[in-house]
Write a structure and sequence with these properties.
Length: 333
């Protein structure tokens, strides 16, 4: 049996001004079932009651590390440096986990000690309820987030999260998924992602933050290409034309189709789309990829954007929806 100073799993919890949520997170982790693990909470310069709440915990599995605010990537990097375990888990302090998280991960390690990264399912939590998101143990189906995966520490080596970059998960997690040869799935929803908090990174609608998306994607692709894997190996793992598909799904669809829907006015949206389009590599979007994954309507709108017929794309994405909503309201009266 491992000594307490050498746990199998290190759980890194990043916390910044989340006093309303951190207790839910830690109480879910500090269950009796969570043995052979350590929990490292990195308080990333919180200015609310988060430090006071953390000070209440007296559990030998839990350590708190305080640092000046450096962002999510910096907090996770600090946690990695402090971690003693052979495997790493990342948890965002405003989310929570299943009590089965650690037992299921330990069982997976025992059954498959050769695996580099285990991927597990999660619940997407909104004001309307919870929905299970099923993930696959491959580059395309594992989800970008750092938190629904168990990493063998030596498999990720000296790689670290980018500091000062939004979408830092995209910039490095996909690299690990591409470069690690042995991936496996834990068929259980072990994470609860709080997708209804306005202050969260993923829900922050800020033009300048969103413009980090193509930067993160470019860093990801560059790291994969510099990994030492041959083009033939990458094509075998990720599929032919993987870069065009990657930019299509992660930059074009997310940055031009999905995120602008919540922008407050047409002028803001048009200006943002123009900036984002200027960051796209040649040949992006791949309209066939969009059609297969998102349907014909989005594919036609994507073709319009690709041909610089932006107004036609807007009609498909926004004007028709407004007309439909008006007609629906009329018939409901």
């Amino acid at each position: 049996m491992l000594e307490p100073s050498q746990p199998s799993i290190s759980i890194v919890v990043a916390a910044h001004n989340i006093s309303a949520y951190i207790d839910d997170c830690l109480q879910a982790l500090l269950v009796p079932e969570a043995c052979d693990c350590e929990i490292i909470v990195v308080d990333d310069g919180s200015t609310d009651a988060t430090p006071a709440r953390l000070a209440r915990y007296r559990d030998p599995r839990l350590r708190v590390v305080c640092q000046a605010n450096g962002g999510l990537g910096a907090a996770r990097n600090t946690g990695i440096a402090e971690a003693r375990g052979r495997y790493l888990l990342f948890v965002d302090g405003d989310d929570w986990t299943s009590p089965e998280l650690v037992p299921q991960c330990l069982a997976a390690i025992e059954a498959r000690p050769d695996v580099d990264i285990f991927v597990f399912d999660y619940f997407d939590v909104t004001a309307d309820g919870q929905s299970r998101r099923r993930c696959k143990p491959d580059f395309w189906g594992a989800h970008n987030a750092a938190w629904n995966k168990l990493y063998r520490r030596d498999a990720i080596g000296d790689d670290r999260f980018d500091v000062g970059l939004w979408y830092e998960d995209l910039a490095i997690v996909r690299v690990w998924l591409a470069c690690c040869a042995r991936l496996a799935h834990i068929d259980a929803p072990l994470y609860f992602y709080r997708n209804d908090r306005s202050g969260s990174i993923m829900n922050a609608l800020d033009d300048e933050r969103l413009m980090h998306l193509p930067v993160a994607a470019e860093r990801c692709v560059t790291r994969i290409e510099r990994s030492g894997l041959s083009p033939a190996t990458l094509d075998a793992r990720l599929g032919a034309n993987w870069k065009r598909r990657f930019y299509t799904v992660e930059v074009f669809v997310r940055g031009i189709i999905q995120r602008p829907r919540a922008m407050p006015d047409t002028a803001t949206r048009r200006a943002f789309v123009a900036r984002m389009k200027a960051c796209l590599p040649a040949g992006v979007p791949d309209v066939d990829v969009v059609r297969r994954q998102f349907g014909m309507k989005i594919a036609i709108a994507s073709l319009c954007y690709k041909k610089d017929a932006d107004r036609a794309a807007e009609v498909l994405l926004y004007d028709l929806r407004r007309v439909r909503n008006r007609v629906t309201r009329v018939f409901r009266r």
